[in-house]
Write a structure and sequence with these properties.
27% strand; 2 domains; 7-stranded antiparallel sheet; Alpha-D-Glucose-1,6-Bisphosphate, Chain A, domain 4; 3 helices; flat; alpha+beta
Length: 182
Amino acid sequence: MSVEISTTLRSKQLLRSFFLASAALFGAISISGCASVDAPTLRYGPRSLVLQASYDEVWQAVQKALANYPIQVNNVDSGTIVTDSLKGSSIWAPPFDEKLKYHDFKYVLKVQVIRGKISGLDSCQIFVTKTSTARPDFFSGPVKLPSDGFEEGAILYRIERQVAIQRSLKNAFERESSSGGS
């Protein structure tokens, strides 16, 4: 009889310690879930990406990635695209909810595509630079602001995806035409 009681008592103690450990783990997860996220690193200068693709493939992908932006300069020979001056978050809204502390916030995007070769294969390096200016108050002149890099990163991602989609469509078309011609 005492063996059954001690076994039952031991089971209750194990169950109690399991529930306490579960509660502690749940509490730790809950507390860490409410932690604040650090602000993004702000910097000046371009973000870049190297793609192993022909210049024409990359240029077409850049055109599609910037389709929603008003373009001021579009020079395929020099590999340069410059947008018109964009106001505030008219096209791109930052992923964090931070109110702009400046009056008359504007920015310009510049995309530069440079041809090259890697191991004898065509490749291109793409630079995306965001130049932001704003006026701290009505009487001050424009001040150059650093970028968080999110918009530039999103544009580079779109370009990379467009190149991958173009290649997939080309391969599918070639497979279909070769199997249909047999």
